[in-house]
Write a structure and sequence with these properties.
four-stranded antiparallel sheet; six-stranded mixed sheet; 2 domains; binds adenosine-5'-triphosphate; Rossmann fold; globular; single chain; binds magnesium ion; alpha/beta
């Protein structure tokens, strides 16, 4: 059984912008799927459906056997962790450690366990020294790692990353590649950083103007120069040097 199944998903914003136009695909358990596409293709709109922030207007989404609806979104949210494109969407407390503790506390985890889990993840991601600062007082790259921490602390069985490498310096980008490669969870990554997708995903979907225009093994899609250029993208940097 697929971990995520999306069938004929359509989404139109209130101003009549159609962002998703009949999107269908599935993701297997433990699979790492990349979603690529030019600006405005509908990637973040799709991401906002994975935990029911947006509910399907047409079509359906089934996550771990449960169809997403108003009545199941709470249950689904417990298993799906999303790191949003903008870290400010998920960091809002006065101390970073409280941001990271927020999820486990809400699940009713005991204060002692929350403290230990928060400490572990902040240390793992190199944020321990910043634990008493508010997100507004740390750098963009640090914010991105803090947003990761607030999701990973929940050990979600499905992880969704929207532009995870924005703002990361080369060393932290490498650290993130290693982190994502080590995930046991199912992972869906949206990114313009095609080298990151190459390093972390087995399969890729190319979205353009709200439709899937190509789907296949990472190496096949990401080395198809004509396909990428037709859709406003370029070959991964590692392949450009061979031209
Ligand atoms: N709140 C909104 N109201 C109306 N239209 C919107 C809204 N948010 C996004 N859109 C439109 O929906 C389409 C898809 O936007 P979306 O943010 O999903 O694209 P994206 O693929 O994530 O782009 P990017 O690569 O720039 O992050 C775009 O045409 C965008 O202008
Ligand atoms: Mg986006």
């Amino acid at each position: 059984m697929s971990e995520i199944t999306i069938k004929n998903l359509e989404f139109t914003y209130p101003d009549a912008s159609r962002a998703l136009d009949g999107v269908s695909f599935s993701v297997g358990k433990g699979e790492k799927l990349g979603i690529i596409g030019p600006n405005g293709a509908g990637k973040s709109t799709l991401v906002n459906h994975f935990n029911g922030f947006f509910l399907p207007q047409t079509g359906k989404i089934v996550i771990q056997g449960i169809e997403l609806s108003k009545s199941t979104q709470e249950e689904i949210r417990k298993n799906v962790g999303i790191v949003f494109q903008n870290p400010d969407d998920q960091l809002f407390m006065t101390r970073l450690s409280d941001d990271v503790a927020f999820g486990p506390k809400n699940l009713g985890t005991s204060p002692e366990t929350v403290k230990l889990e928060v400490q572990k993840i902040l240390k793992e991601l190199g944020l321990w020294e910043l634990r008493d600062k508010p997100a507004a007082h740390i750098s963009q790259g640090q914010k991105r790692f803090a947003a990761f921490a607030s999701v990973l602390v929940m050990s979600p069985s499905i992880i969704v990353l929207d532009e995870p490498t924005s703002d990361l310096d080369p060393r932290n980008r490498k650290k993130l590649i290693a982190l994502v490669r080590g995930f046991k969870s199912t992972c869906v990554t949206v990114s313009h950083d095609l080298d990151f997708i190459w390093d972390t995903c087995e399969r890729v979907i190319l979205l353009s103007a709200g439709k899937i225009v190509a789907e296949g093994k990472t190496e096949k899609i990401l080395s198809d120069r004509a396909l990428l250029e037709k859709n406003g993208l370029e070959l991964p940097i590692r392949l450009q040097s061979n031209l």
